[in-house]
Amino acid sequence: MRSLRAAPASFLAPPAPPLLLPPSTPAPRGVFSAAAAAAAAAANQTHAWCPSPRRVVRLRRPARAGAAPSSAASVEDAKKDVLVALSQIIDPDFGTDIVSCGFVKDLEISEALEEVSFRLELTTPACPVKDMFEEKANEVVAALPWVKKVNVTMSAQPAQPAFAGELPEGLQKISNIIAVSSCKGGVGKSTVAVNLAYTLAGMGARVGIFDADVFGPSLPTMVSPENRLLVMNPESRTILPTEYLGVKMVSFGFAGQGRAIMRGPMVSGVINQLLTTTEWGELDYLVIDMPPGTGDIHLTLCQVAPLTAAVIVTTPQKLAFIDVAKGVRMFSKLKVPCVAVVENMCYFDADGKRFYPFGQGSGAQVVQQFGIPHLFDLPIRPTLSASGDTGIPEVVADPQGDVAKTFQNLGVCVVQQCAKIRQQVSTAVSYDRSIRAIRVKVPDSDEEFLLHPATVRRNDRSAQSVDEWTGEQKVQYGDIPEDIEPEEIRPMGNYAVSITWPDGFSQIAPYDQLEMLERLVDVPRAKTAVISSS
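C-alpha coordinates predicted for Fe-S cluster assembly factor HCF101, chloroplastic (534 residues):
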Protein backbone atom coordinates (compact mmCIF):
# COMPACT_ATOMS: atom_id res chain seq x y z
CA MET A 1 0.00 0.00 0.00
CA ARG A 2 1.18 3.49 -0.80
CA SER A 3 2.02 5.55 2.29
CA LEU A 4 0.84 9.09 2.72
CA ARG A 5 3.42 11.34 4.35
CA ALA A 6 3.20 14.92 5.46
CA ALA A 7 5.44 17.39 3.63
CA PRO A 8 7.51 19.97 5.52
CA ALA A 9 6.21 23.52 5.61
CA SER A 10 8.84 24.62 3.09
CA PHE A 11 7.14 22.44 0.50
CA LEU A 12 3.90 24.39 0.65
CA ALA A 13 3.33 26.60 -2.36
CA PRO A 14 2.51 30.34 -2.04
CA PRO A 15 -1.07 31.56 -2.52
CA ALA A 16 -2.43 30.96 -6.02
CA PRO A 17 -3.19 33.99 -8.20
CA PRO A 18 -6.59 34.11 -9.90
CA LEU A 19 -6.89 32.13 -13.10
CA LEU A 20 -8.93 34.81 -14.87
CA LEU A 21 -7.85 38.47 -14.86
CA PRO A 22 -9.09 41.74 -16.40
CA PRO A 23 -8.22 42.31 -20.10
CA SER A 24 -5.44 44.78 -19.27
CA THR A 25 -3.57 42.35 -17.05
CA PRO A 26 -1.43 39.45 -18.30
CA ALA A 27 -2.87 36.10 -17.31
CA PRO A 28 -0.53 34.27 -14.92
CA ARG A 29 -0.91 30.69 -13.81
CA GLY A 30 -3.94 30.19 -11.61
CA VAL A 31 -3.25 26.57 -10.81
CA PHE A 32 -0.06 24.95 -9.71
CA SER A 33 1.07 21.52 -8.60
CA ALA A 34 1.30 20.60 -4.93
CA ALA A 35 2.15 16.93 -5.09
CA ALA A 36 4.21 17.14 -1.94
CA ALA A 37 1.44 18.77 0.13
CA ALA A 38 0.59 17.46 3.57
CA ALA A 39 -1.67 14.41 3.41
CA ALA A 40 -1.57 12.93 6.90
CA ALA A 41 -4.68 14.80 8.03
CA ALA A 42 -6.49 13.50 4.96
CA ALA A 43 -6.74 10.03 6.40
CA ASN A 44 -9.46 10.77 8.94
CA GLN A 45 -11.90 8.31 7.43
CA THR A 46 -10.55 4.77 7.53
CA HIS A 47 -11.42 1.72 9.55
CA ALA A 48 -13.39 1.47 12.73
CA TRP A 49 -14.49 -0.92 15.35
CA CYS A 50 -17.19 -2.79 17.08
CA PRO A 51 -20.64 -1.12 17.17
CA SER A 52 -21.08 -1.47 20.92
CA PRO A 53 -18.41 -0.07 23.26
CA ARG A 54 -16.34 -2.50 25.24
CA ARG A 55 -13.58 -1.85 27.73
CA VAL A 56 -10.19 -3.46 27.79
CA VAL A 57 -8.06 -3.06 30.91
CA ARG A 58 -4.38 -3.94 31.12
CA LEU A 59 -2.39 -3.78 34.34
CA ARG A 60 1.30 -3.01 34.09
CA ARG A 61 3.75 -5.16 35.98
CA PRO A 62 5.41 -3.37 38.94
CA ALA A 63 8.86 -1.98 38.30
CA ARG A 64 11.82 -4.16 39.21
CA ALA A 65 13.43 -3.45 42.55
CA GLY A 66 16.24 -1.00 42.26
CA ALA A 67 15.02 0.35 38.90
CA ALA A 68 15.13 4.13 38.58
CA PRO A 69 11.61 5.59 38.65
CA SER A 70 10.49 7.43 35.54
CA SER A 71 7.44 9.68 35.41
CA ALA A 72 5.98 12.45 33.32
CA ALA A 73 6.48 16.00 34.59
CA SER A 74 2.82 17.00 34.16
CA VAL A 75 -0.50 15.77 32.82
CA GLU A 76 0.09 17.58 29.53
CA ASP A 77 3.49 15.96 29.14
CA ALA A 78 1.92 12.61 29.96
CA LYS A 79 -0.72 13.08 27.25
CA LYS A 80 2.01 13.88 24.75
CA ASP A 81 3.81 10.70 25.74
CA VAL A 82 0.65 8.65 25.19
CA LEU A 83 -0.06 10.21 21.80
CA VAL A 84 3.51 9.63 20.68
CA ALA A 85 3.22 6.00 21.77
CA LEU A 86 -0.10 5.52 19.97
CA SER A 87 1.30 7.11 16.82
CA GLN A 88 3.38 3.95 16.41
CA ILE A 89 0.19 2.15 15.36
CA ILE A 90 -0.11 2.48 11.59
CA ASP A 91 -3.23 1.84 9.55
CA PRO A 92 -2.10 -0.91 7.13
CA ASP A 93 -4.16 0.42 4.22
CA PHE A 94 -3.14 4.07 4.33
CA GLY A 95 0.21 4.02 6.08
CA THR A 96 -0.99 6.71 8.51
CA ASP A 97 -0.93 6.48 12.30
CA ILE A 98 -4.17 6.34 14.28
CA VAL A 99 -3.46 9.66 16.02
CA SER A 100 -3.28 11.52 12.69
CA CYS A 101 -6.43 9.69 11.63
CA GLY A 102 -8.24 11.22 14.61
CA PHE A 103 -9.16 7.92 16.21
CA VAL A 104 -7.95 8.78 19.74
CA LYS A 105 -10.69 10.42 21.83
CA ASP A 106 -11.29 11.33 25.48
CA LEU A 107 -7.67 10.94 26.59
CA GLU A 108 -7.41 11.28 30.37
CA ILE A 109 -4.50 10.90 32.79
CA SER A 110 -4.94 10.38 36.52
CA GLU A 111 -3.55 13.02 38.89
CA ALA A 112 -0.99 10.54 40.15
CA LEU A 113 0.20 10.08 36.54
CA GLU A 114 -0.21 6.32 36.79
CA GLU A 115 -3.49 5.50 35.00
CA VAL A 116 -4.31 6.24 31.33
CA SER A 117 -7.79 6.17 29.85
CA PHE A 118 -8.79 6.87 26.25
CA ARG A 119 -11.29 5.86 23.58
CA LEU A 120 -10.59 4.71 20.03
CA GLU A 121 -13.44 5.92 17.83
CA LEU A 122 -13.20 4.47 14.34
CA THR A 123 -15.59 4.53 11.40
CA THR A 124 -16.74 0.99 10.57
CA PRO A 125 -17.47 -1.75 13.10
CA ALA A 126 -16.33 -4.40 10.59
CA CYS A 127 -12.63 -3.47 10.66
CA PRO A 128 -10.69 -6.58 9.60
CA VAL A 129 -7.61 -5.62 11.67
CA LYS A 130 -9.44 -4.66 14.86
CA ASP A 131 -7.69 -7.31 16.95
CA MET A 132 -4.31 -5.94 15.92
CA PHE A 133 -5.35 -2.38 16.80
CA GLU A 134 -6.64 -3.50 20.19
CA GLU A 135 -3.51 -5.43 21.09
CA LYS A 136 -1.11 -2.72 19.93
CA ALA A 137 -2.97 0.14 21.65
CA ASN A 138 -2.65 -1.60 25.02
CA GLU A 139 0.90 -2.72 24.38
CA VAL A 140 2.45 0.61 23.41
CA VAL A 141 0.79 2.61 26.20
CA ALA A 142 1.55 0.01 28.88
CA ALA A 143 5.20 0.15 27.80
CA LEU A 144 5.53 3.76 29.05
CA PRO A 145 7.68 3.71 32.25
CA TRP A 146 5.24 5.67 34.39
CA VAL A 147 2.03 3.83 33.37
CA LYS A 148 0.62 1.26 35.78
CA LYS A 149 -2.87 0.83 34.36
CA VAL A 150 -4.42 1.27 30.88
CA ASN A 151 -8.16 1.63 30.17
CA VAL A 152 -9.11 1.49 26.49
CA THR A 153 -12.69 1.90 25.30
CA MET A 154 -13.56 0.91 21.72
CA SER A 155 -16.42 2.61 19.88
CA ALA A 156 -17.63 3.43 16.38
CA GLN A 157 -18.85 6.67 14.87
CA PRO A 158 -22.59 7.03 14.15
CA ALA A 159 -23.52 5.81 10.68
CA GLN A 160 -23.62 8.68 8.22
CA PRO A 161 -23.28 8.91 4.42
CA ALA A 162 -20.36 10.65 2.73
CA PHE A 163 -22.82 12.80 0.80
CA ALA A 164 -23.83 16.44 0.99
CA GLY A 165 -27.12 16.37 -0.89
CA GLU A 166 -30.64 16.31 0.48
CA LEU A 167 -31.06 12.58 0.98
CA PRO A 168 -34.43 10.98 1.73
CA GLU A 169 -34.88 10.57 5.46
CA GLY A 170 -34.63 6.79 5.28
CA LEU A 171 -31.12 6.95 3.79
CA GLN A 172 -29.63 9.62 6.04
CA LYS A 173 -28.15 7.18 8.56
CA ILE A 174 -26.57 4.70 6.15
CA SER A 175 -22.79 4.87 5.84
CA ASN A 176 -22.21 2.71 2.77
CA ILE A 177 -24.52 1.46 0.03
CA ILE A 178 -23.15 -1.50 -1.94
CA ALA A 179 -24.68 -2.54 -5.27
CA VAL A 180 -24.35 -6.22 -6.21
CA SER A 181 -24.91 -6.42 -9.94
CA SER A 182 -24.45 -8.75 -12.89
CA CYS A 183 -26.70 -7.25 -15.60
CA LYS A 184 -27.58 -10.86 -16.44
CA GLY A 185 -29.99 -13.25 -14.78
CA GLY A 186 -29.10 -16.66 -13.42
CA VAL A 187 -25.47 -16.07 -12.47
CA GLY A 188 -25.96 -16.17 -8.68
CA LYS A 189 -26.15 -12.46 -7.99
CA SER A 190 -28.75 -12.82 -5.24
CA THR A 191 -26.74 -15.62 -3.65
CA VAL A 192 -23.69 -13.36 -3.51
CA ALA A 193 -25.69 -10.39 -2.21
CA VAL A 194 -27.32 -12.32 0.65
CA ASN A 195 -24.16 -14.14 1.74
CA LEU A 196 -22.11 -10.93 1.53
CA ALA A 197 -24.65 -9.17 3.75
CA TYR A 198 -24.53 -11.89 6.41
CA THR A 199 -20.73 -12.00 6.21
CA LEU A 200 -20.57 -8.27 6.96
CA ALA A 201 -23.03 -8.77 9.82
CA GLY A 202 -20.82 -11.54 11.18
CA MET A 203 -17.89 -9.09 11.14
CA GLY A 204 -19.82 -6.85 13.53
CA ALA A 205 -21.48 -4.41 11.13
CA ARG A 206 -25.09 -3.22 11.08
CA VAL A 207 -26.42 -4.45 7.74
CA GLY A 208 -29.52 -4.28 5.58
CA ILE A 209 -30.51 -5.93 2.28
CA PHE A 210 -32.69 -4.32 -0.37
CA ASP A 211 -34.07 -6.63 -3.07
CA ALA A 212 -34.50 -4.32 -6.08
CA ASP A 213 -35.93 -6.97 -8.41
CA VAL A 214 -39.66 -6.30 -8.55
CA PHE A 215 -40.37 -8.76 -11.37
CA GLY A 216 -38.62 -11.71 -9.70
CA PRO A 217 -37.75 -11.04 -6.04
CA SER A 218 -35.40 -13.65 -4.59
CA LEU A 219 -35.08 -12.57 -0.99
CA PRO A 220 -38.28 -14.26 0.32
CA THR A 221 -36.90 -17.63 -0.83
CA MET A 222 -33.33 -17.15 0.37
CA VAL A 223 -34.12 -16.08 3.96
CA SER A 224 -36.69 -17.18 6.50
CA PRO A 225 -37.84 -14.27 8.68
CA GLU A 226 -40.72 -14.88 11.08
CA ASN A 227 -42.54 -11.80 9.80
CA ARG A 228 -42.84 -12.20 6.04
CA LEU A 229 -44.92 -9.08 5.45
CA LEU A 230 -43.77 -5.47 5.45
CA VAL A 231 -45.65 -3.24 7.90
CA MET A 232 -46.27 0.49 7.56
CA ASN A 233 -45.94 2.84 10.50
CA PRO A 234 -49.38 4.53 10.63
CA GLU A 235 -48.01 7.73 12.15
CA SER A 236 -44.94 8.39 9.98
CA ARG A 237 -46.28 6.51 6.92
CA THR A 238 -42.92 4.77 6.62
CA ILE A 239 -42.17 1.11 5.96
CA LEU A 240 -40.82 -1.07 8.78
CA PRO A 241 -38.33 -3.59 7.38
CA THR A 242 -38.53 -7.24 8.31
CA GLU A 243 -35.51 -8.81 10.00
CA TYR A 244 -33.74 -12.16 9.95
CA LEU A 245 -30.74 -13.02 12.15
CA GLY A 246 -30.05 -9.36 12.84
CA VAL A 247 -30.10 -8.18 9.20
CA LYS A 248 -32.86 -5.82 8.08
CA MET A 249 -34.44 -6.52 4.71
CA VAL A 250 -36.98 -5.15 2.27
CA SER A 251 -38.31 -6.85 -0.86
CA PHE A 252 -41.36 -6.46 -3.05
CA GLY A 253 -41.87 -10.14 -2.31
CA PHE A 254 -42.62 -9.17 1.31
CA ALA A 255 -45.30 -6.73 0.18
CA GLY A 256 -47.85 -9.51 -0.08
CA GLN A 257 -48.21 -9.22 -3.86
CA GLY A 258 -45.62 -11.73 -5.09
CA ARG A 259 -44.11 -10.78 -8.41
CA ALA A 260 -45.13 -7.60 -10.17
CA ILE A 261 -46.75 -7.20 -13.58
CA MET A 262 -46.36 -3.52 -14.39
CA ARG A 263 -44.70 -1.11 -16.78
CA GLY A 264 -41.28 0.47 -16.34
CA PRO A 265 -42.26 3.88 -14.88
CA MET A 266 -44.43 2.19 -12.25
CA VAL A 267 -41.60 -0.16 -11.32
CA SER A 268 -39.22 2.76 -10.81
CA GLY A 269 -41.77 4.42 -8.54
CA VAL A 270 -42.20 1.25 -6.48
CA ILE A 271 -38.44 0.85 -6.10
CA ASN A 272 -38.07 4.48 -5.08
CA GLN A 273 -40.80 4.18 -2.48
CA LEU A 274 -39.54 0.91 -1.00
CA LEU A 275 -35.97 2.17 -0.71
CA THR A 276 -36.47 5.74 0.49
CA THR A 277 -39.50 5.43 2.80
CA THR A 278 -38.16 2.47 4.78
CA GLU A 279 -37.02 3.08 8.37
CA TRP A 280 -33.58 1.55 7.91
CA GLY A 281 -32.19 3.23 11.01
CA GLU A 282 -28.41 3.31 11.47
CA LEU A 283 -26.67 0.96 9.05
CA ASP A 284 -23.01 0.52 8.26
CA TYR A 285 -23.77 -1.26 5.00
CA LEU A 286 -26.89 -1.53 2.86
CA VAL A 287 -26.49 -4.24 0.22
CA ILE A 288 -28.68 -3.73 -2.86
CA ASP A 289 -29.45 -6.82 -4.92
CA MET A 290 -29.72 -5.17 -8.33
CA PRO A 291 -32.08 -6.60 -11.00
CA PRO A 292 -30.69 -7.83 -14.34
CA GLY A 293 -30.05 -5.29 -17.09
CA THR A 294 -29.04 -1.63 -17.28
CA GLY A 295 -32.43 0.07 -17.58
CA ASP A 296 -34.67 2.52 -15.76
CA ILE A 297 -34.51 0.74 -12.40
CA HIS A 298 -30.71 0.86 -12.32
CA LEU A 299 -30.61 4.54 -13.23
CA THR A 300 -33.28 5.28 -10.62
CA LEU A 301 -31.29 3.51 -7.91
CA CYS A 302 -28.05 5.28 -8.86
CA GLN A 303 -29.80 8.66 -8.83
CA VAL A 304 -31.75 8.17 -5.60
CA ALA A 305 -29.14 6.33 -3.53
CA PRO A 306 -25.53 7.54 -3.22
CA LEU A 307 -23.87 4.22 -4.08
CA THR A 308 -20.50 3.81 -2.42
CA ALA A 309 -19.29 0.91 -4.56
CA ALA A 310 -20.39 -2.03 -6.69
CA VAL A 311 -19.57 -5.75 -6.65
CA ILE A 312 -19.85 -7.46 -10.04
CA VAL A 313 -21.02 -11.08 -10.32
CA THR A 314 -20.32 -13.17 -13.42
CA THR A 315 -19.84 -16.76 -14.59
CA PRO A 316 -17.07 -18.24 -16.76
CA GLN A 317 -19.07 -18.13 -20.01
CA LYS A 318 -18.28 -15.54 -22.68
CA LEU A 319 -21.94 -14.52 -22.87
CA ALA A 320 -21.89 -13.55 -19.19
CA PHE A 321 -18.83 -11.38 -19.76
CA ILE A 322 -20.55 -9.46 -22.58
CA ASP A 323 -23.47 -8.52 -20.33
CA VAL A 324 -21.30 -7.81 -17.32
CA ALA A 325 -19.16 -5.43 -19.38
CA LYS A 326 -22.28 -3.32 -20.03
CA GLY A 327 -22.92 -3.04 -16.32
CA VAL A 328 -19.33 -2.07 -15.53
CA ARG A 329 -19.50 0.70 -18.15
CA MET A 330 -22.80 1.90 -16.68
CA PHE A 331 -21.30 2.19 -13.20
CA SER A 332 -18.25 3.93 -14.65
CA LYS A 333 -20.42 6.60 -16.28
CA LEU A 334 -22.31 7.06 -13.02
CA LYS A 335 -19.02 7.42 -11.10
CA VAL A 336 -19.63 4.31 -8.98
CA PRO A 337 -16.36 2.39 -8.46
CA CYS A 338 -16.46 -1.39 -8.96
CA VAL A 339 -14.32 -2.88 -6.19
CA ALA A 340 -14.54 -6.64 -6.78
CA VAL A 341 -15.57 -9.33 -9.27
CA VAL A 342 -17.12 -12.60 -8.08
CA GLU A 343 -16.94 -15.42 -10.63
CA ASN A 344 -19.62 -17.91 -9.63
CA MET A 345 -19.86 -21.60 -10.59
CA CYS A 346 -16.19 -21.68 -11.57
CA TYR A 347 -15.16 -25.23 -10.78
CA PHE A 348 -15.76 -28.38 -8.79
CA ASP A 349 -13.32 -30.81 -7.20
CA ALA A 350 -13.57 -34.57 -7.72
CA ASP A 351 -11.12 -37.47 -7.41
CA GLY A 352 -8.39 -35.11 -6.29
CA LYS A 353 -8.69 -32.97 -9.41
CA ARG A 354 -10.26 -29.61 -10.21
CA PHE A 355 -12.62 -29.36 -13.18
CA TYR A 356 -13.85 -26.24 -14.98
CA PRO A 357 -17.02 -27.32 -16.82
CA PHE A 358 -17.85 -23.84 -18.15
CA GLY A 359 -14.34 -22.83 -19.12
CA GLN A 360 -12.09 -20.21 -17.55
CA GLY A 361 -11.20 -16.57 -17.85
CA SER A 362 -14.43 -14.53 -17.82
CA GLY A 363 -13.80 -13.05 -14.37
CA ALA A 364 -10.11 -12.46 -15.07
CA GLN A 365 -11.07 -10.75 -18.33
CA VAL A 366 -13.33 -8.32 -16.45
CA VAL A 367 -10.53 -7.57 -13.98
CA GLN A 368 -7.95 -7.00 -16.71
CA GLN A 369 -10.12 -5.01 -19.11
CA PHE A 370 -11.68 -2.69 -16.54
CA GLY A 371 -8.97 -2.56 -13.88
CA ILE A 372 -11.13 -3.93 -11.06
CA PRO A 373 -8.64 -4.83 -8.31
CA HIS A 374 -10.03 -8.03 -6.77
CA LEU A 375 -11.33 -11.36 -8.13
CA PHE A 376 -13.04 -14.08 -6.07
CA ASP A 377 -13.94 -17.58 -7.32
CA LEU A 378 -16.94 -19.53 -6.05
CA PRO A 379 -17.16 -23.30 -6.70
CA ILE A 380 -20.10 -25.37 -7.88
CA ARG A 381 -21.40 -26.65 -4.54
CA PRO A 382 -24.72 -28.43 -3.92
CA THR A 383 -24.85 -26.94 -0.42
CA LEU A 384 -24.46 -23.39 -1.78
CA SER A 385 -27.36 -23.94 -4.15
CA ALA A 386 -29.48 -25.68 -1.52
CA SER A 387 -28.96 -22.89 0.99
CA GLY A 388 -30.71 -20.50 -1.37
CA ASP A 389 -33.78 -22.75 -1.34
CA THR A 390 -33.90 -23.58 2.38
CA GLY A 391 -33.90 -19.97 3.57
CA ILE A 392 -30.60 -20.24 5.47
CA PRO A 393 -27.60 -18.50 3.83
CA GLU A 394 -24.54 -20.71 3.34
CA VAL A 395 -22.29 -18.51 5.52
CA VAL A 396 -24.78 -18.98 8.36
CA ALA A 397 -25.31 -22.72 7.83
CA ASP A 398 -21.57 -23.50 7.53
CA PRO A 399 -19.56 -20.54 8.84
CA GLN A 400 -16.27 -22.51 8.79
CA GLY A 401 -16.61 -23.93 5.29
CA ASP A 402 -14.63 -23.05 2.19
CA VAL A 403 -17.48 -20.99 0.73
CA ALA A 404 -17.76 -18.98 3.94
CA LYS A 405 -14.00 -18.32 3.83
CA THR A 406 -14.32 -16.95 0.29
CA PHE A 407 -17.13 -14.67 1.39
CA GLN A 408 -15.07 -13.64 4.41
CA ASN A 409 -12.30 -12.52 2.05
CA LEU A 410 -14.88 -10.72 -0.08
CA GLY A 411 -16.26 -9.00 3.03
CA VAL A 412 -12.80 -7.83 4.08
CA CYS A 413 -12.24 -6.49 0.57
CA VAL A 414 -15.53 -4.57 0.58
CA VAL A 415 -14.85 -3.08 4.03
CA GLN A 416 -11.36 -1.95 3.07
CA GLN A 417 -12.34 -0.56 -0.33
CA CYS A 418 -15.34 1.33 1.07
CA ALA A 419 -13.10 2.87 3.74
CA LYS A 420 -10.64 3.97 1.06
CA ILE A 421 -13.38 5.42 -1.12
CA ARG A 422 -14.92 7.36 1.77
CA GLN A 423 -11.52 8.69 2.77
CA GLN A 424 -10.70 9.76 -0.79
CA VAL A 425 -14.10 11.37 -1.33
CA SER A 426 -14.14 13.17 2.02
CA THR A 427 -10.72 14.73 1.41
CA ALA A 428 -10.75 15.12 -2.39
CA VAL A 429 -11.46 18.86 -2.22
CA SER A 430 -10.68 21.08 0.76
CA TYR A 431 -9.89 24.69 1.52
CA ASP A 432 -6.49 25.57 2.95
CA ARG A 433 -6.90 28.88 4.78
CA SER A 434 -3.17 29.20 5.42
CA ILE A 435 -2.49 29.70 1.71
CA ARG A 436 -6.05 30.70 0.68
CA ALA A 437 -6.32 28.01 -1.97
CA ILE A 438 -8.64 25.09 -2.73
CA ARG A 439 -6.77 21.80 -2.65
CA VAL A 440 -7.96 19.19 -5.16
CA LYS A 441 -6.92 15.55 -5.26
CA VAL A 442 -9.39 13.61 -7.37
CA PRO A 443 -10.02 10.00 -6.21
CA ASP A 444 -7.72 7.44 -7.90
CA SER A 445 -5.25 10.20 -8.77
CA ASP A 446 -1.78 10.67 -7.30
CA GLU A 447 -1.57 14.35 -8.20
CA GLU A 448 -2.78 17.23 -6.08
CA PHE A 449 -3.27 20.74 -7.45
CA LEU A 450 -4.47 24.06 -6.07
CA LEU A 451 -7.15 26.42 -7.39
CA HIS A 452 -7.89 30.01 -6.48
CA PRO A 453 -11.37 30.23 -4.85
CA ALA A 454 -12.44 33.11 -7.11
CA THR A 455 -11.52 31.03 -10.16
CA VAL A 456 -13.75 28.18 -9.04
CA ARG A 457 -16.65 30.50 -8.22
CA ARG A 458 -16.41 32.37 -11.56
CA ASN A 459 -16.42 29.14 -13.53
CA ASP A 460 -19.68 27.79 -12.15
CA ARG A 461 -21.69 26.31 -15.05
CA SER A 462 -25.11 26.04 -13.39
CA ALA A 463 -28.24 27.82 -14.63
CA GLN A 464 -27.73 30.48 -11.96
CA SER A 465 -24.45 31.50 -13.57
CA VAL A 466 -25.00 30.68 -17.27
CA ASP A 467 -28.11 31.19 -19.41
CA GLU A 468 -29.23 27.71 -20.46
CA TRP A 469 -30.65 28.88 -23.80
CA THR A 470 -28.06 31.35 -25.02
CA GLY A 471 -25.00 30.24 -23.08
CA GLU A 472 -24.49 33.85 -21.99
CA GLN A 473 -22.57 34.32 -18.78
CA LYS A 474 -24.79 35.82 -16.07
CA VAL A 475 -22.04 36.19 -13.47
CA GLN A 476 -19.39 38.61 -14.68
CA TYR A 477 -15.78 38.76 -13.61
CA GLY A 478 -16.25 41.81 -11.40
CA ASP A 479 -19.22 40.26 -9.59
CA ILE A 480 -16.89 37.93 -7.68
CA PRO A 481 -14.41 39.55 -5.26
CA GLU A 482 -10.80 38.39 -5.39
CA ASP A 483 -10.73 37.57 -1.68
CA ILE A 484 -13.82 35.34 -1.70
CA GLU A 485 -13.45 32.22 0.46
CA PRO A 486 -15.70 29.14 0.61
CA GLU A 487 -17.63 28.64 3.83
CA GLU A 488 -18.05 24.89 3.46
CA ILE A 489 -16.99 22.12 1.07
CA ARG A 490 -18.76 18.78 1.23
CA PRO A 491 -18.69 15.71 -1.05
CA MET A 492 -21.56 14.95 -3.43
CA GLY A 493 -21.28 11.21 -3.89
CA ASN A 494 -18.26 10.04 -5.88
CA TYR A 495 -18.34 12.64 -8.62
CA ALA A 496 -18.49 16.20 -7.25
CA VAL A 497 -18.42 18.50 -4.23
CA SER A 498 -20.87 21.06 -2.96
CA ILE A 499 -19.28 24.45 -2.17
CA THR A 500 -21.16 27.00 -0.08
CA TRP A 501 -20.08 30.63 -0.60
CA PRO A 502 -20.57 33.68 1.68
CA ASP A 503 -23.32 35.07 -0.58
CA GLY A 504 -25.41 31.96 0.11
CA PHE A 505 -24.78 30.40 -3.30
CA SER A 506 -24.34 26.61 -3.26
CA GLN A 507 -22.15 25.48 -6.16
CA ILE A 508 -21.94 21.91 -7.43
CA ALA A 509 -18.41 21.44 -8.72
CA PRO A 510 -17.82 18.12 -10.54
CA TYR A 511 -14.31 16.71 -10.36
CA ASP A 512 -14.19 16.75 -14.17
CA GLN A 513 -14.75 20.51 -14.20
CA LEU A 514 -12.07 21.15 -11.57
CA GLU A 515 -9.62 19.05 -13.57
CA MET A 516 -10.57 21.06 -16.67
CA LEU A 517 -9.57 24.27 -14.89
CA GLU A 518 -6.24 22.73 -13.96
CA ARG A 519 -5.55 21.52 -17.51
CA LEU A 520 -6.30 24.92 -19.03
CA VAL A 521 -3.73 26.71 -16.91
CA ASP A 522 -1.20 27.15 -19.71
CA VAL A 523 -3.73 28.26 -22.35
CA PRO A 524 -3.12 31.98 -23.12
CA ARG A 525 -6.21 34.13 -22.59
CA ALA A 526 -6.51 37.76 -23.62
CA LYS A 527 -10.15 38.06 -22.63
CA THR A 528 -11.98 37.69 -19.35
CA ALA A 529 -14.53 35.19 -20.59
CA VAL A 530 -15.17 32.44 -18.09
CA ILE A 531 -13.70 29.08 -19.02
CA SER A 532 -16.30 26.69 -20.37
CA SER A 533 -16.37 23.12 -19.16
CA SER A 534 -17.40 21.86 -22.55
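The longest strand covers residues 115-122.
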